[in-house]
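For reproducibility, we list the full input for the adenosine-5'-triphosphate complex.
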Amino acid sequence: MSGSIELVQTTKVYDQISVVDAINVKVDKGSYCCLLGPSGCGKSTTLRMIAGHEAVTEGDILLNDRNVTRLTPRQRGTAMMFQDYALFPHMSCLDNVAYGLKVTGVSKVDRYEQADAMLGLVNMAEHANKFPDQLSGGQQQRIALARALICKPDVVLLDEPLSALDPFLRIQMRKELKQLQQKLGLTFIHVTHSQEEAFALADQAIVMSRGKIEQVGSPRAIFESPNTPFVANFIGGHNVLKASGSLEFLSWSAGSDSDDPLLEANTSFSVRADHITTQPRSDKDVAVKAEVIGTEFQAQFYLVECVLEDSQSVTCYLPEESFDVHLISSGKSLYLYWSQERINTFRC
Ligand SMILES: Nc1ncnc2c1ncn2[C@@H]1O[C@H](COP(=O)(O)OP(=O)(O)OP(=O)(O)O)[C@@H](O)[C@H]1O
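The corresponding predicted structure, in tokenized form, follows.
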């Protein structure tokens, strides 16, 4: 396995604004890393700086512990796959894939042999003589991937690789990307604004906001314990609440034998929507009065939107068996419960 990446105080300034602001992160070799965040947070700029397509304003980029900050893209050992695939329309699939070897001076026989093998790897051997406009979106993506892989990079950089595909194909291609990455043992860095995509693929996810890193970790660790209100809101499925008003100190816990508050006043915390119930599971559960303002059927569960007495909104995902339409519908009052252990206080 090859291809560890380290960003050290890496910064990009455009028009006096730091769109990537002194970020520090390590990506292990052979891992699938997703750079995740909303539009404009600096994901693509970060990827382009790693690729060498964008100059770094300050800080460094290390690849396999070698400082590559001032090297050209070709000198780095990275390969980039662009959002629109950027295939040459006048070239066959075989020529598109072989092109990267042509510019490095590999003989015609050798480059066609390697391009053939690469087309086989992405299951496109039978389409070798077709042109890009004769291919489906998923097939074009496979050719773009083969073209990125032909120069045997240590790190493959993918900028929103699935965004041009329809939802069905997106799920199919994301499986193929992961399988290929595992088979080749390469490091993949994949930019996406989709939490679902990042969570499905990543060994390591890097969540960015406004040019800074908010959290780095496995999808599971991030989902179980978001570091900041931004992360909790962005990844979804969490309620971000404040210990104030009807939640003040969370001291009204039914079974609590102490008057000590669970949280200081005005502390922000999150609780997962699927960790909230309408029946207590223990006498240590937190209980809070709420009014239902809407419900939605979501196939695997019901989404129930509530408002607390102090106007904070709470969303819960209730399994079908605990959803009673007579008790849980707009305008009804009820108690919501969650375990004290499910309260996530933010670290930043
Ligand atoms: N060449 C440029 N000149 C000036 N500003 C730029 C340039 N490229 C990007 N920006 C700005 O830098 C910020 C980060 O852009 P970037 O493309 O990295 O975001 P992103 O997270 O990848 O967003 P998206 O998901 O929409 O592609 C944005 O505010 C963008 O307008």
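The chain has a mean pLDDT of 90. Residues 245 and 310 are 5 Å apart (CA to CA). Both points were considered when choosing residues for closer inspection.
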